[in-house]
Amino acid sequence: MSVLVYTESEKGKLKKNAFEVASYAYDVAQKMGTSVTAITFNVEDASELGTYGVAKVLNVSNDQLSVFNAKAYSSAISQAVEAEGAKVVIISSSADSKFLGGILAGTLKAGYAPNVVAAPESSAPFVVKRTAFSNKGFAHTEITSEIKIVGVSNNAYGTVENSTTASVEAFAPTIADTDLGVKSVEVDKVVGKATIADADVVVSGGRGLKGPENWGLIEELADVLGAATACSKPVSDLGWRPHSEHVGQTGKPVASNLYIAIGISGAIQHLAGVSASKTKVVINNDPEAPFFKAADYGIVGDAFEVVPQLIEKLKEFKAQNA
């Protein structure tokens, strides 16, 4: 009766959040007196999950599942739950896993709690802490169903090494034609840059940048920090940046360890989408900007003066500590 964890991957490589949900699953398994089994899809080296407490890996090798398919993945995971006799299933709270979670809950007749930020203090009752009201508060939710699904928020629990040796087994679930009713025809993705969903640091710009021609400031700072770039809704609406970079309540949610907002006033919709970030730094020339009330650190000043100095100091720091 192991704890089952679904670990996300892309092109045969495990994503960063795979190690976080594995760490979380190990914590839950310790409280339940059991072990962790992971299910992976077409992963080249799944044994590295053992570093984070996974005892067994069920690796699905199926070319039809090389690209995420919520219904097909749900079917495969459900079969793994049955095979392992799992009563707790751990997934992430990424967009893909939230899509998956609802289908999986219906299939397994399970209670599902997404956006969880802490491991349950006990397995009976099984109560998890999760964000609520657009990250403005927390809810302590008890899952009472026989099978429980927990969606862990990105960067909420962190990666914790609990080194063990993971045995990797081939797992061949039955995938029906009806599971593949929706197919991915093409995947268009920016390469060579950190993504908003996976980044530890996000550098975001607003209308205070005055135009797309000044976006080099954002990109240079992001490059120094190894960060993803993002923008406010007005910036994407104006066409300065692609909508894929729009973060906020109506865009992509951000739960990074560090979020730097440059020239963003801090409308309520934007704050709701980034409030889960652990540390928020704001650079704005308006001391009355609403964002300062939500910031951990704030700099009142002209971005065109402050950011170049920040980039220079960061480069000096990196050179001295290389």
Structure in words:
This protein has two domains: 178 residues, Rossmann fold (3-Layer(aba) Sandwich), CATH 3.40.50.620; 120 residues, 3-Layer(aba) Sandwich (Rossmann fold). The protein is elongated. The mean pLDDT is 92. The protein has 322 residues and is α/β, with parallel strands linked by helices. Helix content is 28%, strand content 25%. A nine-stranded mixed beta sheet has the order 9-8-7-10-6-1-4-5-11, with helices on both faces. The protein has a five-stranded parallel beta sheet with strand order 13-12-14-15-16. A two-stranded antiparallel sheet has the order 2-3.
Write the layout of secondary structure elements.
Layout: E1 3-6, E2 9-10, E3 13-14, H1 16-32, E4 36-41, E5 54-60, H2 70-84, E6 88-92, H3 95-108, E7 111-118, E8 127-132, E9 137-142, E10 148-152, E11 167-170, E12 201-205, H4 216-225, E13 228-231, H5 233-237, E14 258-262, H6 268-274, E15 279-284, H7 291-294, E16 297-300, H8 303-320
Parallel strand pairs: 1-4, 1-6, 4-5, 5-11, 6-10, 7-10, 12-13, 12-14, 14-15, 15-16
Antiparallel strand pairs: 2-3, 7-8, 8-9
Helix pairs in contact: 2-3, 4-8
Task: Please give the domain count.
Answer: 2
Give the second-level CATH assignment, the architecture of the largest domain: 3-Layer(aba) Sandwich
How would you sum up the global shape? elongated
CATH class of the largest domain: Alpha Beta
Which structural traits does this protein have?
single chain, 322 residues, alpha/beta, Rossmann fold, nine-stranded mixed beta sheet, five-stranded parallel beta sheet, 28% helix
How is this structure best summarized?
This protein is of the alpha/beta class and 322 residues long.
